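Final report, results section. Input specification for complex C-07:
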Amino acid sequence: MKFTLKIGLAIAFIFSFAACGNSEKDKDEDIRLEGYSSKAKKENVETGKASGGNDLSNKGIGPIKSMALPESIDAEMANRGADIFKKMCSACHKMDKKFVGPEIAGVTERRSPEWIMNMILNPEEMIKKDPIAKKLLIESNMAVMANQGLEEDEARAIVEYFRQYDKEN
Amino acid sequence: MKNIIKITVLGILGLFLQSCGNDGSSGSKSGAITSNAAERVYVAPGEHDEYYAFLSGGYSGNLTVYGLPSGRLLKEIPVFSQFPTNGYGYSEETVPMLNTSFGFVPWGDAHHPDISQTEGELDGRWIFINENNTPRIARISLETFETEEIIEIPHSAGNHSSSFITENTEYVVAGTRFSVPYPQEDMAIDQMKGNFKGPLTFIAIDDNGRMNIDFQLKMPGFNYDLSHPGRGDSHGWFFFTTYNTEEAHTMQEVNASQNDKDFIAAVNWKKIQEYVKNGGGEEIDAEYAHNVFDHSTQTATTTMEKKVLTVDPREVEGAVYFMPTPKSPHGCDVDPSGEYIVGNGKLSTDLTVHSFSKMLKAIENEDFDGDAYGIPVLNFDSTLAGTVKEGGLGPLHTEFDGKGNAYTTFFISSEVVKWKLGTWEVLDRQPSYYSVGHLMIPGGNSREPYGKYMISMNKITKDRYLPTGPELEHSAQLYDISGEKMELLLDFPTHGEPHYAAGIPAEKIKSKSKKIYRLDENKHEYAAISESETKMVREGNEVHVYMTTVRSHFSPDNLEGIKVGDKVFFHVTNLEQDFDVPHGFAMIGANTSELLIMPGQTKTITWEPEKEGVWPFYCTDFCSALHQEMQGYVRVSGKNSNVPLKWTLDDEEIN
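Structure output:
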């Protein structure tokens, strides 16, 4: 009887420790005062690049299964993409810096066009299931990728804009 | 030990007995409730109701939307009253919706909703509702569930016999419950008789729903209580109940009930429409507001109209007749075939049913029983189709199930009575809890009722729910009317005082319900369609802030250069384009309300800071995991300070 009680108490202690442990860890990462800053954050600010590595083989999850892109850039399409990007995306994404979401510059070297389009067209499922998108969500401080209700051809135009940008920069 | 067991057993038995007693007493309040009632009103989580029910909010001024059979409240649509929940009537865009010839009126008494029809069937385009106090009619879109238009009714008072719609939505009508000088003038009140009038107003509806007053019928100064259009063969006619044909100007409680019979006025609007088209009628001075909400600019505008066309019914041959109807009739209901016109004599036990075809014959035969102010009074017996005898006490309203039956509410005896059209026999009666006023069968006042459910809207709630102090919400009750007997299935509380309701099968409108407003269709004068368009503009002491929201920040979120004494206009555009991602906007100390901004929408609220400091604003609608971070600051400097306007996001100026 006594023994059981002891075990019970021990388990309870473990639980409470575990809980404390978690919150301590959170604090370590996120909260620093007087000039201290989180290591993880700092790395991101310095490199400016989103993590998730460069994985051009991942096509993401969504309506875009596979697409072949020509070598050349369709300037007209890219212009249209730039316009759509400005109106529908720029509140959270900047080309040259991480904002709410990852920095866009170099994205066509890090991600497949299918992945980019699926992220635009099917963000709810992507952030739940796609390994890179899941990682990016956490890195973006749980700011979800918004579904802006774009059509496929609009997402395609945005990809063209990104390709043009990456070629020129 | 044995004793203890015995006592325990006794105790348990006692509990059983007691609980049986409780069941018994609550059972008596439930009426003859069927055992599987819960199953029949249960809509499983994630499932949708079968019907929309739009219940008037009465003195809340608004319209509430419920699902049937569950009785779940889905939404409150602001119509005639300010609604701080989303800023309606506070935001710059919607303030004009509440303009009237009396100035800005922040409240209304909403009464009778009615859904637009095509060929006598509900078509689900719009729902109309009248305001009784400051006479108005509103039109609400059933795509956006927003009030799109409100028209004031001039020369009217107590707009009660409204807002009923003809079977192809040609007209919506407004009546005058409190007869008044026409046009208004200063006169002794006791000079009412013969000098006051009760104008009936016919408002034409165009293909886009836009309302315009076509003509106003200058009727004798009776009280025009309720109305319904003819349908089928009687399409082209409109029927209005009257009371106080005594024209009493005081103590109407007694003095308006002296005549044994008042009238149902039968108005041949097609004849008057023709007369007016050919130049008939007289244009007289009037003043009334016509408020229209434009979806592309998302802004309402008020036009003050100055003229109205008035028609003397005696000038149009064969246009208006009176049918004597006993005992101060209240509801005026027309059956699905259009043949029977039911007068619900509210101070009686009987219902009087007139026949449309007999009415036509009586007119043809000039079977008149004198006239009232020059309008022929038809012989009572020659229009009478039948009488529902001893239905109950104090009949108010009747609806139809499309299977040859009618359902009438009896206020005094607190019951709904089912009776048969043609034989006038009472088939069933069910008590209501308590003192039922209106009832509604989806489509129950059209050519095609959906006779599965009926709801009663009860005036007195008392002990039906957990007590909430002296002031209680009203109560509605849902009955299954698919069988021979009505079966009470459910009670549910309602908001304000529902005067009538309109119901429609969900599939008629649910697929058309709008999900977002498209940003590329946003033509609001002060919209910022992307963050790069956000800015501050000073015009004297007015500062316009073009602001955007997206999960989860404002742009700009740091604003400087505002001074004490400025009037700040926050024009907030929600950049989201996904279903159900609204953002809110609340400013500390604002003497207005919050804004609730749907995706793609722009709304404006004003703020007049009176104190220097740095004042926060924030998003009120939990929009994402970072909602608590969705905030900003406004720096307010002294009246004579030189702090320049500066707007930033992430410490960067926006351009």
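The CA atoms of residues 205 and 211 of chain B lie 5 Å apart. The interface with chain A takes residues 516, 519-520, 529-532, 548, 550-553, 555, 575-578, 581, 624-626, 650 of chain B (CB under 8 Å). This concludes the modelling results for the funded period.
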